[in-house]
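REQUEST ID: PR-0412
SUBMITTED BY: lab tech R.K.
PRIORITY: routine
TASK: structure prediction, single protein chain
INPUT:
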Amino acid sequence: MALLTRAEIDAADDRTWEDFPVPEWGGTVRLLGLSGTERDAYQASMVRMGSQGNVAGVNLADTSARLLVKCIVDEDFQRIYTDKDAKALGAKDGKVIKRLFAEAQRLSGLGKGAVEDAAGKSETTPSGSSTSD
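STATUS: complete
OUTPUT:
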């Protein structure tokens, strides 16, 4: 397989999305997986920094809803919630939020290690050889 060029990478339509029935809400919700930048920002939002620049703790408040407001989109793939709407969305049925959160995690490549990764506490897996500039 040939190496990709920057133009080919930039042109790739690689964002994943799925529609999920939510009978409790009377319809279907479209979830769009986070981009790399969005994923990093979401993970960073879970970390509380101390005054010395060290990790002081983890912010788990409205974790599920904070992800969902970033992933729930309309038919044109535009977000229907802003980050400020997380508390209101989080007030919905916890069973529904949990179900959609699990799907948003899967689509975004997030999982159990997301908090640990954000806090820099996860184990790293050795990779193959690489070169850098």
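NOTES: Residues 4 and 10 are 10 Å apart (CA to CA).
REVIEWED BY: pending
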